[in-house]
Structures are given as structure tokens and as C-alpha cells.
Design a protein that fits this description.
Elements (H helix, E strand, L loop, with lengths): L15 H10 L6 H6 L6 H12 L7 H5 L3 H32 L7 H9 L1 H38 L7 H15 L9 H27 L14 H19 L4 H6 L8 H28 L12 E2 L2 E2 L3 H34 L9 H24 L3 H29 L6 H31 L10
Antiparallel strand pairs: 1-2
Helix pairs in contact: 3-9, 3-12, 3-13, 5-10, 5-12, 5-15, 6-7, 7-8, 7-13, 7-14, 7-15, 8-14, 9-12, 9-13, 10-15, 10-16, 13-14, 15-16
Organism: Aquilegia coerulea
Keywords: Amino-acid transport, Membrane, Transmembrane, Transmembrane helix, Transport
Subcellular location: Membrane
Length: 461
């Protein structure tokens, strides 16, 4: 299959100097969003940092909960399939992007790919709105997670206080508002290196906590059977698949590859190898240890299982540092996904003919980014049950962008023969995940309807 992935048209040797010249000759034609936010200055290592932050996020702490609806065999199978298919899909996207870059038409955005490969309507009416909604929802979710972590830390230190969740969400939003002024995606490279270390740190803490509880006399009675049956079990399986798919989701592969300095050939693959080393180390260790320790009692986030009736089952310091790591890394993840909104705002409001830090461009940037984060913070505070809404957005967004469109882009761009294995693998993956996306969306909407009776604005959950 590997030989099928490299068509004859990409096997020609292209002089690196020519590529740089082509890139520079197109620079004057770039809009302000591409020129200022998606600066092409990074190395493959920086790309790896961006990729890791965009995929390895606090959402991985919910993977043991997904196993409660799948059990061991199906759960491990879905985890492996999720890793394999996304790694394969992201490599396909990278090959398509490299192919167009070699032709002198470097695509910097997912929307550019949709427009050039499938036509302008796909950009305007499908991929553009879908990607923007997905990334902005991720920003809202990250602010919410940061607020929840802040509240948890505060209650550990001051258990009798009466501060509400929305107050902590506002504090987290203020932190995000300050960080949102960082000018470009490339500027986040050092923050995302720290983020990589942090995700390893809180994953190690979650694993250590699960093993500690599982081995202690306080360990709950573990039952690995699925509680639900009938229709509830069926929809639970669809929900679990959506959770796993969303956790592996990215949705901004082209924008991350756009940060790489030309020539881009081969650099994305190295970045993906770095990223998926971290993915496998964190996803599998947290999921297996969490489900082993708590079985079908695993909560929506495994950290919730470390406290029973207000009393911690693990040392208090472990809970404290785990939530500090989660808070900080969640903020970094939010910054990565905020770049898409920043790029759109910059493209509309900034002037590419003026300098990036000129008065003409700084003031609109400051105002627009501040309003963007303020709106996301308000949504997070109003809807602290955003996880249910995010599941819908994930089913509609992550699965099409990460599991379906890469296969379509590759087949349309390179037109592999119908006699090749690659062609049919791509078709099979696209069809299967389209069906799973629809079923996952139905299951997520159904869960919102079920939970609607407990919803309230600005709830202190």
C-alpha cells in the first residue's frame, strides 16, 4: 500500500531553491490572514509541537468513560482504529498539500483545499463553516475545562468557599484573552513545547492515580460489563465512537502544515511521528489504567473517580498538580484552535499592505480577538454542560474533516487506479466513517434531549 501512496507526479525531484522562489513570488498575493497568522517559518519539530497540542488534549481523560459503553475488546479495537486511520488520513492530507506546493500552488488552509480540489461551493457552504464551528467549539470547551480545573483547585485549597463555576470560567477566559494577543501560529511553538510536556505530566498523574486507587483497599468493586441494554446500549456505542473520534480529531492539519518553512516535503511526516508517539503513550496508558481501576463506573473524566463523597482516594497533592497541569495545557490547546478564528478575523480586518504591528493592524486585532474570546467565555459560562453540545459538533465536524475528506481529497487529486488497494481502502474508510458520523450525531442529539431536563444557564456543576 505504501507504494500506491506516492504517485508518479510527486516522484519528480523539485529543486528546493525553486520552491522557495515560488513561495516568495506568491507572498505579495497572500491575504493578511495567511501573511500574519499562518507564517511559514517553522521546522518539522515545531510542527510536531503544534500537532501534539491539537490532538493530545484534556479530552483524553474521558476515554475510560468511552470504554464503559464498549468494554475491553471493542474499546481497544476502536482506540487502535482511531489512531491508525487518523495517522493514515493526516499523511494523505500532507501528500496532497505537498503535491500542490510542488506545483507552485501551496494551499495554506483546509478551505483552500476544498476550493481547489472540490470547487468553491465546498469551501463556502461546507468545509469553511464546519471547520470554523468545530475550532470555535474547541475554544469554548477549553475555556470551560480550564474553569472547571480552577474551581477544583480552589475547592481543594478552600473546601467551604461558595464561588460559582461561572466565576472561574471568567478567570480562565481572562487568561485566554491575554494569550490570544500572541500574533501568529508560529509564535506558539515554545508554548506548545511546554504543552507537550504538560500533557505527558497529567497523563502520568492520571495513570499513577488509577493504579494507586486500583491497588488500595479503597478500590471500588470493578465490573467490566456494559450496564445498558437494548436501544440505550446501541446509542451508547455510537456515543463512545464519537468520543474516541473527537479525541483523535484535529481539523486544522493544513493550517499546521502552513506554518512549516518551504520546502515542506517530508517535514509533516516527521511531525506526525513525533505527535503519534505522544498520542500512543498517553491515550492507551490513561484509557487502560482508568478502565482497569474503575470498570463501568468510570466517570466522564477519570479525575472525577479520584474523589468519592467529597473525599479524595489519592493524595491531595496529586489531585492538585494534575489539575494545574490540565488547566495550563487546556489553555494551550484553546490557543491552537483559536488560530483559525484569528486567521479569519485578520483576513477580514487587517491590511496586508501595512506592517503586521502597525497601528492600522494592531487595533483591529486587539479588539476582534478580545471580542472573540469574550464571546467564547460567555458561552462556556452559560452552558457548562457544553460536553453534550460538543459531542454533536464533534460528530458533524471531526469525523468528516478527519476521517472522510482526506480520503476524498487524495483520490480526487491523484486519481489512483480502481485496481489499486489504496483506492478501495480510501473509499471504504470514507463510507464507513460517514455512516458512523451520522449515527454518532443522532446519538449525541438524543443525549441532549435526555439531559435537557437538568440544563440551566450558568449552572454551578
Amino acid at each position: 500500500m505504501g507504494s500506491d501512496l506516492l504517485p508518479n507526479s510527486t516522484s519528480e525531484v523539485v529543486d528546493e531553491t525553486d520552491q522557495v522562489i515560488k513561495h516568495k513570488s506568491n507572498k505579495d498575493e497572500l491575504d493578511a490572514g495567511a501573511l500574519f497568522v499562518l507564517k511559514s517559518r517553522g521546522s518539522w519539530l515545531h510542527c510536531g509541537y503544534h500537532l501534539t497540542t491539537s490532538i493530545v488534549a484534556p479530552a483524553l481523560l474521558s476515554l475510560p468513560f468511552a470504554f464503559t459503553m464498549l468494554s475491553w475488546v471493542a474499546g481497544v479495537f476502536c482506540l487502535i482504529i482511531g489512531a491508525s486511520v487518523t495517522f493514515y488520513a493526516y499523511n494523505l492530507l500532507s501528500l496532497v498539500l505537498e503535491h500542490h506546493a510542488e506545483l507552485g500552488q501551496r494551499q495554506l488552509r483546509f478551505r483552500d483545499m476544498a476550493r481547489d480540489i472540490l470547487g468553491p461551493r465546498w469551501d463556502l457552504y461546507y468545509v469553511g463553516p464546519l471547520q470554523l464551528s468545530l475550532c470555535y467549539a474547541a475554544v469554548v470547551a477549553c475555556i470551560l475545562i480550564a474553569g472547571q480545573s480552577l474551581k477544583f483547585i480552589y475547592l481543594l485549597l478552600s473546601p467551604n468557599d461558595t464561588m460559582k463555576l461561572y466565576q472561574f470560567i471568567v478567570i480562565a477566559g481572562v487568561l485566554m484573552l491575554a494569550l490570544a494577543q500572541i500574533p501568529s501560529f508560529h509564535s506558539l511553538r515554545h508554548i506548545n513545547l511546554v504543552s507537550l510536556v504538560l500533557c505527558l505530566a497529567y497523563s502520568a498523574c492520571a495513570v499513577a492515580g488509577s493504579i494507586y486507587v486500583g491497588k488500595s483497599h479503597k478500590a471500588p468493586v470493578t465490573d467490566y460489563s456494559v450496564n445498558e441494554d437494548g436501544a440505550n446500549r446501541m446509542f451508547g456505542v455510537y456515543n463512545a465512537i464519537s468520543i474516541i473520534a473527537t479525541t483523535y480529531g484535529n481539523g486544522i492539519i493544513p493550517e499546521i502544515q502552513a506554518t512549516i518553512a518551504p520546502p515542506v516535503k517530508g517535514k509533516m511526516f516527521k511531525g506526525l511521528c513525533l505527535c503519534y508517539t505522544i498520542v500512543i503513550a498517553t491515550f492507551f496508558s490513561v484509557t487502560i489504567s482508568g478502565y482497569w481501576a474503575f470498570g463501568n463506573q468510570a466517570a466522564g473524566t477519570v479525575l472525577s473517580n479520584f474523589i468519592v463523597d467529597g473525599k479524595p482516594l489519592v493524595p491531595k497533592w496529586l489531585l492538585l498538580i494534575t489539575n494545574v497541569f490540565t488547566l495550563l495545557q487546556g489553555s494551550a490547546v484553546g490557543l491552537v484552535y483559536l488560530q483559525l478564528t484569528n486567521e479569519v478575523l485578520e483576513r477580514k480586518l487587517a491590511d496586508a499592505k501595512c506592517k503586521q504591528f502597525s497601528f492600522r493592524n494592531v487595533i483591529p486585532r486587539l479588539i476582534s480577538r478580545s471580542l472573540s474570546v469574550a464571546l467564547a467565555t460567555t458561552i462556556a459560562a452559560m452552558f457548562p454542560f457544553f460536553g453534550d453540545i460538543n459531542a454533536v459538533i464533534g460528530a458533524f465536524g471531526c469525523i468528516p474533516l478527519d476521517f472522510v475528506l482526506p480520503m476524498i481529497f487524495y483520490n480526487v487529486t491523484f486519481k489512483p487506479s480502481k485496481d489499486t488497494f489504496t483506492f478501495w481502502v480510501n473509499i471504504f474508510i470514507a463510507v464507513v466513517f460517514t455512516i458512523l458520523g451520522v449515527l454518532g450525531a443522532i446519538a449525541a442529539v438524543r443525549q441532549i434531549v435526555i439531559d435537557a431536563k437538568i440544563y440551566s444557564l450558568f449552572a454551578n456543576v
